[in-house]
C-alpha cells in the first residue's frame, strides 16, 4: 500500500496521448501512457496521479472507476493492476497476472475492465480474470480457448445474467454469469461466429461490432445488421444511456435502442486522432492520441475544448535545460548508434514557474528536425540555442525562434554537400568563459565549430582522428583552461584547445592510450576540483586533473574502486552511462541506460542513493538527460518514460550572502513540502528560531542550499508563526537574517 505526500519528488508528465478514459457521476478520468488525471466536471478541479503518487511507471492500457466502491483500477500492458482507493488515496499493486507462470509475458495485457455485482471481469490476452472489488483479491481465471487454452479476450459484458466475451478468432462466447464452474471451458458456448471487436450491453440490447466496421444487434443468438462505420472501431462503451463508438476520426453516439443520435466528425483534422470517448453530463469527452482530452456537445459538435492538464508535449524528453525559474525541453533524438532517422519534426517546450508549460510549434522552428541538445547564453537566458541532429543550430532570441545556422550561413558542414540545409548533425553544445558557443558536427571533416560572441564562425578538425567522416559526437564540456572535451562513438574522449596551437589529445580504449573500457564515450563532466569524469558505454573513468592536457602528451584515466561487502569493486562496472552532472557540493549525478541514477559523493567513494523505478518515482530506468537548476537545486531527470525532479540541496555555493532567499514564504496550510534556504556560501551555518529565540533547526550547507522540513528537533511540525532564519559564513565574516512565516 502507498498513501503519502511526496515532498521531495515532482512529476512532469505528459497527458497528451490518452490510452483510456472512465467516469464517475462527478468526475472524468483520463489515462495517459503511465499516469492519469481526474477532473471534477462541476468545479473543473483537476488532480494528476503519477509515479510520484505511487503509480508504477509501466504502460497503461485501461482505466476503470467503480463508483460503488470508490476505487479506480489501472490496468497495464504487462498485466499489472493498480487499485486506487479514492477515499484515502492509497494504492495497491496487484501482481497476480504479472506473476502467472503459465502465461507468456507478452500475453498479459489488460484489454478491458467490466464491473458486475461487485466484481470486475478483466479481459486479457490469455483469458478472463475475476477480481473482487470489496476484498481487493483475485478470484478465478477463465481459460476459455479450445481445450482450456489461452485465448485473447477483447471485451466482456453482462446482460440478463449472461456474460458475453469477444474472443479473437473464436467469435462471441457466452455463459451464465452465476455458473460456479466458469473455469471449465466447456461451460462456455459459441453464441455468434465471426471476427468481433466489441460487445457492449445497453439497457435493452447487446451491441456487437466486427472487424469489417459493422454494427449489429444481438437478437436471440443471431446478430442483426444495423449500420456500418467509415473506420475500424477503437472503443465502444455504454454511458449515461448512450452507446458510444469511437474510430480514428469519428465518435458515434447512439441511444438505448441503438439508433444514432449524432456523431462527431474530425476527418478534416489529420493531426488529431481519436482513441476513445464517453458521454458525461450531456458532454462528449474524447481521448486523443496527440492532444489529450477534448470535449464537445451535440449542439456544437464541431467545436472542441481541451481539458487536458498543462503538461509537456510528450513523455519521452530527450534533453532538458534549466534557467532561473524554469526549463526548456526537446523531444528529438538519435539512436544509440547516432542515427536520427526516422527524423522527428517536433515542438520545443518551455516550463516556467507560476506560468506552466507552453510549446513553440515545429512550424516556427525553421524546419529544424531531431533537436537533441539545448544551451542558454551565460549572460542572457532569453538567448537559447538548440542543436539539431539533422538541420544545424537553431537560435532563439527573447525566447522566440530567430535563425537557423546551416552549411549556407555558417562553418557547419553537411554530410551531403549538395544539400546544404540537411544532414548537418550538430550535437554537443557548450559556452566558454568568453561567451563563445562551441558545438560538435558529426560525420564531417571539421568535427568542432564555434560561433564567437562577435557572430563569427570557425570550424576545426580534430587531427587525432584518422577518419573523422565516420565519427559521431555526443556531449561536450569545457574546463577552466578552455579545453573542449568531446564525447565520440569510436574515438574515445577528445580534448581540443585552440589557444595552445590547436592542441588535440584523446583518451581511448587500452591501458597505454587512456585506459578507457571502450572508445564509445557518452558523458563527460568537469567537477569543482578540475577532475574529468568520463562516462562510457561500459563504465566510468576519472582523469585526475584537466591540467594534464597542457603538459602531457598521453593522457590516462582510472576507475574508481570501492569496497562492497568487504570486496574491492569497480564503481559502475560495465554500466552504460548516459550523463554525468556535478552539483553544488561537487557530488555527482550519473544517469545510466537501464540502471537508473547513481547519486555519489565528490570522490565517488560513497553512494548516497541509487534511484530506480523500483525504489523511487523514476518512471523508467533508462536516463536520457539530467539537469540541475543552479538557483533552486531541483534535479531534473528525463527518462524514456517521462520526467521527474528531485528537490535536494544541489546548488552551488555563492560568493556572498546578498541574495539569500527563503521559499516558499509564507508556508501556507495546503503546502506540505520543504522550505529551501538558497543563495548560501558553501558551508554556511543556518539556524532557525521561533520569535522568542528558541532554536528549532540548525544545519551547515553543503553547497548553496539548506532544506528544512519545518520540523523541530523533536521531529514535530512547528506551529504557526514567524521564524527567524539566521545565516553566517563559515568564518563568521558575513551574516544574513531572513524571516519566514508558517501558517498551519
From TrEMBL:
Domain PorZ N-terminal beta-propeller: from-to ranges: 29-188
Any Pfam family: Reg_prop
Annotated transmembrane regions: none
InterPro entries xrefs: PorZ_N (IPR048954), Reg_prop (IPR011110), Secre_tail (IPR026444), WD40/YVTN_repeat-like_dom_sf (IPR015943)
Keywords: Signal
NCBIfam families in the cross-refs: Por_Secre_tail
Name of the molecule in the record: Por secretion system C-terminal sorting domain-containing protein
Organism: Flavobacterium terrae
